[in-house]
Write a structure and sequence with these properties.
By secondary structure, this protein is mostly helical. It is built from twelve helices and four strands, in the order ααααβαααβααααββα. The protein folds into two domains: about 260 residues, no CATH class; about 45 residues, no CATH class. The two termini are about 25 Å apart.
């Protein structure tokens, strides 16, 4: 019996395989459940925010005078308990009668678009990142537990090419979900700001958003998509290495709950915070980066370090490569049975 020798390499086209991979991911029950939970949570939270805010918080002069009178009465009651010879201002603060009338107004309950919408967008991106990691770990681990990877290699024996197609399919499906979630959050936030809030740019937390609000939101959204891709790659790479969904989720749980917090508190004086995955993930999304706690000084105080978006991106990309390269090598070298 002679074994036939292939004279030509397989010529399967990549696009049908990519479409098949996207369809496989989007038809999984876990993906659909996570999509429903993510979009549903955004809708419910946005509705609660809408009903807890008010369009007009201006109080009348009579209401402000009444609030000042109540505060003055409380101040006089406090001053009666002050030791003799001591000024009451040292114990009870300044007299309300000498304060500006506007200081007795209630808290501004308007929905401030320039302050709240960027936070909502960052929160949505973080939630989508969590979904991406779960889907990456589940997508990689399920193929080993169901032994479907062996079957797929019969149709596409070139392992690197197959792995690239599966990775792209995962990213496209998760990007579609993340974009939908962020657009939904933006739309509901804009409706709330228009009906129950204000578009006053003075409430913007950073100058970038104050100067060009929509461009700043676009940049946050694009960085969110990058973070989704990194999280999905993390989950998929770990699942390729350990070949089990539960084990890959366990690795993530041990790192974020045990390892990262243990290192953060045990070695905080050595400046380990700039190298934490969670810290770099949040800093990467925030416009312009954040000032984070760095090293403990001999005096006991902590110095601050400006962690920029670029540095956070390089750190996240380095960790991603540290996991992905061994995963690719393992997939191309190890037996798939």
């Amino acid at each position: 019996m002679t074994i036939p020798v292939l004279e030509r390499r397989p010529s399967h086209k990549a696009l049908p395989l990519l479409r098949s991979e996207i369809s496989r991911i989007t038809h999984r029950r876990l993906f659909r459940w996570l999509a429903v939970v993510l979009l549903g949570a955004i809708t419910v939270i946005s509705l609660l925010v809408f009903f807890f805010h008010h369009k007009n918080t201006n109080q009348s002069t009579d209401e402000l005078l009444q609030a000042q009178a109540v505060a003055q009465q409380e101040w006089e009651t406090c001053s009666e308990r002050v030791p003799e010879g001591q000024p009451p201002e040292n114990f009870c603060g300044p007299s309300p009668a000498n304060q500006d009338l506007s200081s007795f107004g209630s808290v501004d309950e308007r929905y401030k678009a320039y302050e709240a919408i960027p936070v909502v967008l960052i929160g949505t991106a973080i939630a989508a990142t969590g979904v991406a990691f779960l889907m990456g770990a589940s997508s990689g681990g399920a193929e080993w537990s169901s032994r479907s990877m062996t079957l797929q290699l019969l149709f596409e024996p070139r392992r690197r090419r197959l792995l690239l197609i599966k990775w792209l399919g995962l990213l496209i499906a998760l990007w579609a979900l993340a974009i939908t979630a962020m657009l939904l959050a933006l739309a509901l936030g804009a409706v709330t700001a228009s009906l129950r809030g204000t578009w006053d740019s003075s409430f913007a937390p950073v100058d970038t958003l104050r100067d060009d609000f929509w461009m700043g939101l676009t940049e946050i959204g694009l960085r969110g998509l990058v973070l989704v891709a990194i999280a999905a790659t993390f989950g998929y790479a770990i699942a390729i290495l350990v070949r089990n969904t539960g084990a890959s989720l366990g690795v993530a749980f041990v790192y974020f709950v045990v390892v990262e917090n243990g290192v953060r508190f045990a070695l905080i004086k050595h400046g380990t915070e700039p190298f934490m995955l969670s810290t770099n993930s949040v800093t990467f999304l925030f416009p312009g980066g954040l000032d984070i706690v760095n090293k403990m000084q001999p005096t006991g105080d902590f110095s601050l370090l400006r962690l920029t978006n670029l540095r956070s991106f390089i750190t996240l990309l380095s960790y991603c490569a540290l996991i992905s390269i061994p995963a690719v090598w393992s997939f191309t070298r190890r037996d798939v049975s």
